[in-house]
Amino acid sequence: MAEVLVLVEHTDGTPKKVSFELLTAARALGEPSAVFLGAPGTSAAAIESLGKYGAEKVYVAESDDIAGYLVAPKAEVLAQLVSDKGPAALLVASTAEAKEVAARVAVKTGSGFLADAVELAADGTATQSVFGGGVIVKSKVSAGTPIITIRPNSTPPVEQAGAAAVETISVAISDGAKAAKITDHVVEAKGGRPDLAEASIVVSGGRGVGSAENFSIIEALADSLGAAVGASRAATDAGWYPHQNQVGQTGRTVSPQLYIAAGISGAIQHRAGMQTSKTIVAINKDPEAPIFELADFGLVGDLNTVVPALTEEVIKRKG
Predict the structure, then answer these.
(1) In angstroms, what CA-CA distances link 257 with 70, 99, 275?
(2) Which DSSP state fits 188?
(3) Cα(227)–Cα(242) distance, rounded to whole angstroms?
(4) Average pLDDT over residues 147-169
(5) Euclidean distance between CA atoms 114 and 211, whole angstroms
């Protein structure tokens, strides 16, 4: 069976959920092999969990040259691995950094590059949502090794035992790849909610929320569901919620299992960032709001009444 390389997304050696999603998606194309790139000594904690989700091999490249610079060293290591192993495909997450790494690898290896896939077929055909989500296309790489980025949450992670045999990769980074050095790390303060890009449930508020203070009812519903909190551009521009929580074409793109839009009209800018969600629930007092065209379930009503009642019901059923 052909080998499929998967670039591991991790934080100090702890794989992110999207890595397990990629390993699951890779099985459609062949035998998954994880590629771990990081600082010395960080891979040990990841091996077992990668094998738990199907990695037959784990290629490990640990070096200060990888961890201490931006994307160029990672691209060099991956390009060399693609050239040496001749895999059926290379899969990476559709994150800002990983997409840049993937694009560089595609150039270095003369390979076709597909971004933001939401589904993969066994023949390598990728389903993509393009033009702000207005068009669904099916694409296939016709030259070199298919290099494909996949949106987080588009593939539910499924456990499947793999051997996780470790193979260490020697690292020799060119001087040209060291032109941009990381000089400092700042750890962003985070609460107890899941990361917006990786959350399986997202509750978002829009202009209809009315104020920054009123976002507390959106947060309460999110917390009752174990969800991340999102916001429309109108809400973030008004200063009601931080810009890093903006969902939309100029914000974050999410694809959770459940997306709840409260007080969001459904402008194309917002829809582009969430319309690949598996189930969409809209709450809006305007029955003509465009969001209802996209929603699987819609509720016409005042969110100040509906959202607290929904939160109360969720808590009651969980209790």
Answers:
(1) 32, 23, 11
(2) P
(3) 17
(4) 92
(5) 40
Instruction: Please say whether the dihedral angle defined by the alpha carbons of residues 172, 73, 77 and 109, taken in this order, is positive or negative.
Output: negative
Cβ(262)–Cβ(209) under 8 Å? yes
Q: How far apart are CA 40 and CA 252, in angstroms?
A: 31
Q: What is the CATH number of domain 201-318?
A: 3.40.50.1220
Q: Which amino acid is at 174?
A: S
**Does 18 score more than 70 pLDDT?**
yes
**Domain definitions of the chain by residue range:** 3-178, 201-318
Q: Are strands 113-120 and 147-150 parallel, antiparallel or unpaired?
A: parallel
**Cα 148 to Cα 99: distance, rounded to the nearest angstrom:** 9
Q: How is residue 252 annotated by DSSP?
A: B
Strands 201-205 and 258-262, bridge-based pairing: parallel
**How far is 55 from 57, CA to CA, in rounded Å?**
5
Q: Convert 118-155 to b/e letters by CB count within 10 Å (16 or more is b).
A: bbbeeebebbbbeeebeeeeebebeeebbbbbbbbbbb
Q: What's the CATH fold of domain 3-178?
A: Rossmann fold (3.40.50)
Half-sphere exposure for 119 (CA within 13 Å, toward CB): 9
For the chain, give the number of residues: 319
* Single-letter code of the amino acid located at 9: E
pLDDT digits (tens, 9 = 90+) for 168-215: 999 889 999 999 999 988 876 667 788 888 899 999 999 999 999 999
Q: What is the rounded average pLDDT of the residues 25-50? A: 95
Q: Which of 50, 108, 115, 55 is nearest to 84 (CA)?
A: 108
Q: Which residues of 70-86 are buried (b: 16+ CB within 10 A; e: fewer)?
A: bbbbbbbbbbbbbeebe
Same fold across 3-178 and 201-318? yes
The model's pTM: 0.82
Q: 154 and 256 in contact (C-beta within 8 Å)?
A: no
Residue listed under structure tokens 């020697």 = 170
> Has residue 131 got a pLDDT over 80?
no
